[in-house]
C-alpha cells in the first residue's frame, strides 16, 4: 500500500491532525501534484498550533512554489541589465523574477584591490529567507483569524485567488450570509422542482447507492437575464447546507497560453478537496461555448478542459454539485448537455406575481415613500418584468422625483403614482429572450430539452410572441 493511501486512511480517523496533512502534502509534492500538495499544506497550517511545524510547512510551500514557477520564468522578458561604473569597476547585475526571492547574478570585473565578501552575501540571503517565512506565516494567520471570527456565516465560500508578494496562488474562504428558499418571495413552482429533483435526493444517499448513481452531478440554470439564477444557486446551496464556491469568468481567463485551462483545472481540484460542496459557474457559456461556432483555438481548448474536468476519465466529482448559469443555452456546446455533465436543465422564468410584489418591497427599502404603496397593483402591472427591470422602475421613479425637487418643487417621497408612471416608461427585457427561445423551440427542440420554456410560453405569453 502506498504512503499516500496509508496517510489518507489515518486522516479519515484524525481529520484535524496537522502532522498527517503536512506529510500528505510532502508526498503529493514529491509525486509532482503541486495543487493537491498546496491544498494539504494550507489545511495543515489552519490546524497547526506548533510554531516549529508552521515554519516547516511554510518552507515546504515555498519549495513547491519555486519548483512550479521556475520553469515558467522568461529570462529575456524579466531580465533588467544595468551597467554601473564606479572607480573603473564594472558590475553587471542581472535581476531575474522569482516567486520566492530575487536571484541576482553578478558578473564582476575587479581591479587588483577589489574584493567580494561571499560570506556576507550568504548571511543576507538566509536573513531574507527567514523574513519571508515569517511574513507568509503572518498572512495565513490573519486569514485564519478572519475566518474564525465569522462563525455565523458558514454557508458560502467565494472562490478567489490569493496572491502574496511571491505570487503564491491560494484559494481563501470568504464567509458570506446564508441564503435559503425562505429568502426568495414567490417562485413556489420552481422551489418545488428544485426540492424534488435535487434537494431530496441529496438527503437520501442510500437510494443513490442502491441504484449505483453518484451523488452530485451537473445542473444548468437558464432563463432571461436578471431573473435570479445566481441567487437561486446560492439558496440551493443553503438548503443543502453545503459550501458555495462561486466562480466568475475573471477567475479562469488568463492572457498567457495554457494558463486558463490550468486555472480551470485548479478550481476543480480545489472543489474536490473541499467536497461535499456546490461549485457554481456564472455565465458558463463564456468558456463552454459551442466548439462548432468558435473561431479561436484557445477557447476551444478551454471548452475541452471543462468537458474533461466535468466527466473525464480521471475526474472524481462525487459529492460535488456543479451548477452553471447562462442566458444563452442555445450557445452551449452540445457535449456539455449530455448525461454526466449539465444533464439537469432548470428554467428560471420571469418573477411571478408574488415574487414581483416582494421585489418591489425590497427595492423600496430605505427610500422615502409617501403614503401606503399598493404592491398588489404594481405587481399586476409588471407582467414579464425581471428583477432587474423592477429595480429600473424604482430608479426611474426616484430620478423623476429628484429632478422635480431640484427644479424647485416640494421635497417628497415616492408614491404609487410615481411608480406607475415609471412602469409606462420601462419595457420588460424578458420578451425579446422569450421570442428567441420560441424560435429555437420551433426549429431545434427535437430532443425536448427546452419543453419547460415551451409550456411557459403557451401558458402565459403566447399572445405576446406571435
From TrEMBL:
Statement: the UniProt record of this protein carries the keyword ATP-binding: yes
Entry keyword annotation includes Ligase: no
InterPro entries xrefs: AAA+_ATPase, AAA_ATPase_domain, AAA_lid_3, ATPase_AAA_core, ATPase_AAA_CS, P-loop_NTPase
From the UniProt record, which GO molecular function terms apply?
ATP binding; ATP hydrolysis activity
Q: Which residues form a coiled coil?
A: 119-156
- Residues annotated as transmembrane: none
The domain of life is Bacteria
Residue ranges constituting the AAA+ ATPase domain according to the UniProt record: 215-352
Task: Identify the keywords attached in UniProt to this record, alphabetized.
Answer: ATP-binding, Coiled coil, Nucleotide-binding
Q: Do you know which Gene3D superfamilies this protein is assigned to?
A: 1.10.8.60, P-loop containing nucleotide triphosphate hydrolases
Instruction: Give any Pfam family that matches.
Output: AAA
UniProt family annotation? Belongs to the AAA ATPase family.
Supply the name of the protein: AAA ATPase central domain protein
Tell me what organism the protein belongs to. Caldicellulosiruptor acetigenus (strain ATCC 700853 / DSM 12137 / I77R1B) (Caldicellulosiruptor kristjanssonii)
Q: Name the lineage.
A: Bacteria, Bacillati, Bacillota, Bacillota incertae sedis, Caldicellulosiruptorales
Amino acid at each position: 500500500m502506498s504512503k499516500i493511501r496509508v496517510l489518507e486512511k489515518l486522516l479519515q480517523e484524525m481529520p484535524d491532525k496537522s502532522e498527517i496533512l503536512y506529510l500528505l502534502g510532502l508526498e503529493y509534492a514529491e509525486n509532482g501534484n503541486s495543487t493537491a500538495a498546496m491544498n494539504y499544506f494550507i489545511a495543515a497550517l489552519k490546524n497547526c498550533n506548533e510554531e516549529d511545524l508552521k515554519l516547516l510547512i511554510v518552507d515546504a510551500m515555498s519549495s513547491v512554489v519555486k519548483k512550479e514557477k521556475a520553469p515558467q520564468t522568461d529570462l529575456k522578458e524579466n531580465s533588467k541589465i544595468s551597467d554601473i561604473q564606479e572607480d573603473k569597476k564594472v558590475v553587471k547585475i542581472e535581476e531575474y523574477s522569482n516567486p520566492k526571492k530575487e536571484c541576482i547574478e553578478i558578473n564582476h570585473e575587479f581591479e587588483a584591490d577589489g574584493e567580494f565578501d561571499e560570506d556576507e552575501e550568504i548571511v543576507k540571503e538566509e536573513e531574507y529567507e527567514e523574513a519571508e517565512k515569517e511574513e507568509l506565516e503572518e498572512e495565513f494567520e490573519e486569514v485564519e483569524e478572519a475566518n474564525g471570527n465569522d462563525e455565523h456565516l458558514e454557508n458560502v465560500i467565494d472562490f478567489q485567488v490569493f496572491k502574496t508578494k511571491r505570487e503564491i496562488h491560494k484559494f481563501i474562504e470568504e464567509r458570506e450570509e446564508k441564503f435559503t428558499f425562505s429568502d426568495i418571495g414567490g417562485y413556489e413552482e420552481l422551489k418545488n422542482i428544485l426540492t424534488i429533483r435535487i434537494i431530496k435526493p441529496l438527503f437520501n444517499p442510500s437510494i443513490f447507492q442502491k441504484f449505483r448513481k453518484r451523488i452530485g452531478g451537473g445542473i444548468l440554470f437558464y432563463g432571461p437575464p436578471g431573473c435570479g439564477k445566481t441567487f437561486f444557486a446560492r439558496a440551493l446551496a443553503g438548503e443543502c447546507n453545503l459550501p458555495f464556491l462561486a466562480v466568475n469568468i475573471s477567475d479562469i481567463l488568463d492572457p498567457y497560453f495554457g494558463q486558463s485551462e490550468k486555472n480551470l483545472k485548479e478550481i476543480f481540484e480545489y472543489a474536490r478537496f473541499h467536497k461535499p460542496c456546490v461549485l457554481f459557474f456564472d455565465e458558463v457559456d463564456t468558456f463552454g461555448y459551442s466548439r462548432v461556432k468558435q473561431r479561436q483555438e484557445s477557447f476551444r481548448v478551454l471548452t475541452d478542459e471543462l468537458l474533461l474536468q466535468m466527466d473525464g476519465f480521471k475526474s472524481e466529482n462525487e459529492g460535488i454539485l456543479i451548477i452553471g448559469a447562462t442566458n444563452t443555452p442555445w450557445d452551449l456546446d452540445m457535449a456539455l448537455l449530455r448525461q454526466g455533465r449539465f444533464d439537469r436543465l432548470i428554467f428560471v422564468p420571469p418573477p411571478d406575481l408574488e415574487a414581483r410584489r416582494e421585489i418591489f418591497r425590497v427595492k423600496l427599502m430605505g427610500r422615502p415613500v409617501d403614503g401606503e404603496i399598493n404592491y398588489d397593483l404594481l405587481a399586476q402591472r409588471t407582467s414579464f418584468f425581471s428583477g432587474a427591470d423592477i429595480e429600473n422602475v424604482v430608479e426611474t421613479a426616484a430620478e423623476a422625483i429628484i429632478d422635480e425637487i431640484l427644479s424647485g418643487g416640494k421635497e417628497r417621497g415616492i408614491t404609487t403614482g410615481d411608480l406607475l408612471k415609471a412602469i409606462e416608461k420601462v419595457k420588460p427585457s424578458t420578451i425579446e429572450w422569450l421570442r428567441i427561445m420560441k424560435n429555437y423551440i420551433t426549429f431545434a427542440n427535437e430532443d425536448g430539452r427546452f419543453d419547460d420554456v415551451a409550456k411557459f410560453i403557451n401558458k402565459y405569453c403566447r399572445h405576446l410572441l406571435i
